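We store sequence with structure; for instance:
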Amino acid sequence: MTERLNPQSFDVAAIIQAAQAVASENLLPRVIDRLLRISVANAGAQRAALLLCHDQKLLLDATIRIDPDVVEVDILRPVEECPDLPQTILNYVVRTRQVVVLGDAPSDACFGRDLAIARLKPRSILCLPLLYRGAVTGVLHLEHATVPDVFHPTRVKVLEWLAAQAAIAVENARLLGALEAASAEVRRANEKLELAVIERTRELADAQARLIALEKEATEVQMAGGFAHEMRNILTGAKTFLAKIQGVDEERRSLCAANNDMLKELYLLTRDHLPEGTRREAATLVRRINTNGEVMHAALSDIGELLDRALASTRVILRYARLGRERRGSRPVRLRPLVESILRELEGDFAQHGIVAEIQIDPESMLDGDEVHLDSMLRNLVLNARDALCENGEPTERKIRVALVEDEQSTTVYVSDTGIGIPPDVRARMFEPFFSTKPETGTGLGLPVVRKLASIYGGKIEVDSEPGRRTTIGIVLPKAEHRDPACAEPTREPPPSPSDLLRGSA
């Protein structure tokens, strides 16, 4: 069950500042030092240890104690040689990628018999994995020797968010260190090839920029997914409470309608016992209360519709956040029936707006992939084309064309429209997540979804647009023999030990 956190129970600005402080460091020792100090401060721990993966082996990199305040870095000791660390907990965290929180470690049924716990008897323990691209790249272990239940769920959640940012910062620092070392070695070994070294350095810098951009996007997606998940829980709770008011009896009448009926019945039961003047005043009050009840009923209905729209938006964001776990499909899919199905669903909408749809795809044409992926890509492009046509107030022909073009290396599906086109400023940002020219109705995730799904297949997106006249967007998918092997789904066997697990998921 997902734990709900009250946003007022902790300082969001402080959390963001802490994550930025870790991410701002470029040198690995400083990243480690910042991470340990911030973790201890946020968690209320007395001691912390950071273990990182070095060449597929987990080593103790650094420790910190607050009494006295001592940080030791570059220890690089194998985890098996650290008698003051609970091996069973570390192995469990690496194997399951789950957080372990113990409020009274010596009495814990699962881990209380660990040699380090039995000998040192720490009361509170928090151990959580550092995950980078789904793989365990390290473990952060925190303890308090004397106080039980130090690590409150709110603090644990903060540390999880911080660990996610720290994993990226550690990897970036390693990459940057490797880049600097490689550049220095190249300069020393190739003094007579200065131009080649400059070119190579430029290529490495470009690769680093692309990596940082990808990590930024991954962080945005992770944060968006977490936010959408929390918002979905809150909105679902609000819908549940609203349902208690909107359908309270067998006839599914709202509480307002039921109250109005009971008020009317009460008036009818008592009116013959009231003086003439009082009866008129009571009737007036009953009518006013009924009017207020109708207004409240309408307002509650509007609130229900708004909650439904908000929940729909969170579902879109959650689906986008989960795209990173999607894998390329390999089954043959007939493309024309898929396109026909999408257009049939939109027939009424197209007829209302005078849109003509045209398909230029051979009935026997096949694409290797996942039908759900192809449907999502084409549906998003067709809906975008529909919106562009509806925004075009000119009395021109409104047409959408879906066509398939093949050559020896690739298959391209084009979706064209005679709509308003794409202005240069919008074209520069159209694939950015959450960027939308329709903020009232769109989430800004349609085209990013298309691009991300295409990348899963080693493909790309081509855009050709003439503002005010037309737009053509092509999904270019390489044929099987030309696909990047990195796009293939990996096959792994379950690792038997922490070191093997790290090696298998690196």
Q: What stands out?
A: Confidence is low (pLDDT under 50) at residues 1-10, 485-506. The two ends are 29 Å apart (CA to CA).
